[in-house]
Amino acid sequence: MLSMNEKQKKPQKLKARLPRGFVDRSAADIRAVDEMIAKIQEVYERYGFDPVETPLFEYTDALGKFLPDSDRPNEGVFSLTDDDDQWMSLRYDLTAPLARHVAENFNEIQLPYRTYRAGYVFRNEKPGPGRFRQFMQFDADTVGAAGVQADAEMCMMMADTMEALGIARGDYVIRVNNRKVLDGVLEAIGLGGDEHANARLTVLRAIDKLDKFGPEGVRLLLGEGRKDESGDFTKGAGLNDGQIRKILFFVGITDYAKSSAELAELVAGTTKGGEGVEELNTIRSLVLSAGYEADRIKIDPSVVRGLEYYTGPVFEAELQFAVTNEKGEKVVFGSVGGGGRYDGLVSRFMGQPVPATGFSIGVSRLMTALKNLGKLGAEDVIAPVVVCVMDRDLESMGRYQRFVQELRHSGIRAEMYQGNKKNFGDQLKYADRRGSPLAIIQGGDERASGVVQIKDLIEGKRLSGEIQDNVTWREARVAQISVPESDLVEKVREMLAAQAEDRTKAN
């Protein structure tokens, strides 16, 4: 027999919790992303790129050597073991999965392979303001083209993409550097060779924070380390003052044309530094020949890209207009995407050289930028026309269903009211909360006469402020007209067009 306590104990309610670093997406955000992706896709298609899709999971060893060495590779990525005890991870980016796809299908792929894809990537990192563990990227890549003309084209395509999205010249710049040059600088200060690989990676990640922390913050990360506002300490690269000074000089170059000779001298005698300078000079010449001046595509030694797999030119798309941050400060919006040459990523599957270059756009961040500029959501989706349910007998319900299907089949968003409330006023309140432009009404009298009432909810809301007397309101039947059932679709279309014209005039 159950005790009193057992009888009275209620089942524990499950708490609804969104995991940290993840977000639910609203209808408005989804539509904004779709609008933006369609514009990006149109540019990529015009350049001759084709879509491809890879899965969210990859075997962990396929994701790249930037992952930490540990029994369970759970730093930076979300991982689990398959039923055959192989480690699998949610993809960290879209580039490493593409490298696996190319290698696995190498005999069927036509080189150069020019492809694009959009999808979610996952980072098992500490979440923070504007920093999420799941976010969308949109990538374009060329695999099988060794010449830096492929890198130059990638930069030009990014510039065209920014403008296709409505970002004016002067509000963006594509910044270009070369990892060979940076590796030459590192070699020149004594960080060449495999034994210094970890130190080089720490230096690269420090320089990549230049926009975020400024020269002084990078100086700390290149030296002993830096403590952030929360008190967390990031260990530095441990370089001496002379080494730090040369790196900060290199990343501080602002006029490449004036500094290219000095840069060549700095990396003279290194393994690939001189080659990198020549590649930058070639890219600069190619983009200038095509009409892309330095205000659109600029050689900038401060561009690093944090991932270790880049082997040549690297690029960053930066938005240069000011926004207000969480502290109320005016700051430059900054990077919305980047990429570079990664000749070793496909090659490690193949045992033969396979050159590749690509660019990745941060979709959520770019969407935020476009919203700041008022470039998204200009054409709001019209809420559905609501067909009210006045009578609930089977014949009446069938008529209401016919009305709503006729509207839908004519390309008009429509829904039949499906709530539990029978009160007509509550149905109109529902339509109003939905932002519906029109309500369709047919009671017994209208049905007997073969007509329907169409209530203009937008006009009715406007007039409600002008008519104060309830009697006048009822007699006026504000913004409501009667039409034959056969004219329903045509009249609805006409009224929606009139509302659209009013919105245009208002704007």
UniProtKB/TrEMBL annotation:
UniProt keyword annotations, A-Z: Aminoacyl-tRNA synthetase, ATP-binding, Cytoplasm, Ligase, Nucleotide-binding, Protein biosynthesis
Cellular component aspect of the GO annotation: cytoplasm
GO molecular function, one term: histidine-tRNA ligase activity
CDD domains: HisRS-like_core, HisRS_anticodon
Residue ranges of every copy of the Aminoacyl-transfer RNA synthetases class-II family profile domain listed in the record: 1-384
Catalytic reaction annotation: tRNA(His) + L-histidine + ATP = L-histidyl-tRNA(His) + AMP + diphosphate + H(+)
Gene3D superfamilies: Anticodon-binding domain, Bira Bifunctional Protein, Domain 2
UniProt record, GO biological process: histidyl-tRNA aminoacylation
The keyword Glycoprotein is assigned to this record: no
EC numbers: 6.1.1.21
Subcellular location: Cytoplasm
Binding positions for L-histidine per the UniProt entry: 93-95, 123, 137, 141, 305, 309-310
Entries under PROSITE patterns matching the protein: AA_TRNA_LIGASE_II
Pfam families: HGTP_anticodon, tRNA-synt_His
Subunit comment: Homodimer.
Family statement drawn from the similarity comment of this UniProt entry: Belongs to the class-II aminoacyl-tRNA synthetase family.
PANTHER family according to UniProt: HISTIDINE--TRNA LIGASE, HISTIDYL-TRNA SYNTHETASE
Descriptive protein name: Histidine--tRNA ligase
